[in-house]
Design brief:
Blueprint lengths: L36 H10 L3 H13 L3 H11 L18 H16 L5 H47 L1
Helix pairs in contact: 2-3, 4-5
Length: 163
């Protein structure tokens, strides 16, 4: 809503925006699968030339061009993001078990079985497990307390009626 200051209404405020505050101009967002114009333009320019460019990059790499070698290797052997690791972890059904599992992770890292980054990842998973265990334990304690309060309340009410 646009309001303007007029001589008739000195209390009106000037708002220069066309849209109401908190309302998106594009509530549906960008359509799924839509592509950037520059990407489409680059694809149009390179259409049909990909094979020739690939051959040229390989030729340059074979002639010792380090940038071309790096480009070819990055495409052939992409950087590994993570690997599957295997080592023995004890049972983790209690918080105390999780602490023992932390020790196993530290030992595996110290022995070189896993990297420090892998140890940090496993420690994060163990921390999530510890929090889940504690949440379940706290919920059980809370339910037990609620039950106790309900029993005390009933006993108190029975005692009041008998007087």
């Amino acid at each position: 809503m646009v309001t303007e200051m007029t001589a008739e209404d000195p209390t009106a405020t000037k708002n220069t925006t066309r849209f109401e505050k908190g309302t998106s101009g594009n509530p549906n967002g960008r359509p799924k699968g839509s592509r950037n114009r520059s990407t489409l333009a680059a694809e149009t320019l390179l259409d049909g030339e990909a094979e020739a460019l690939t051959r040229k990059a390989i030729e340059l790499a074979l002639n010792g061009d380090l940038s071309a070698i790096r480009l070819c290797l990055e495409r052939l052997i992409p950087a590994r993001r993570s690997r599957v690791i295997q080592f023995d972890l004890p049972e983790t059904s209690t918080v105390e078990d999780v602490v023992i599992a932390y020790d196993a992770v530290i030992t595996a890292m110290a022995d070189g079985e896993i990297s420090p980054d892998e140890a940090a990842t496993v420690a994060g998973v163990l921390e999530s497990k510890r929090k889940a265990i504690e949440t379940v334990e706290l919920a059980e304690e809370l339910n037990a307390m609620k039950s106790d309060v309900a029993e005390i309340k009933e006993a108190f009410q029975r005692r009041e009626w008998t007087r």
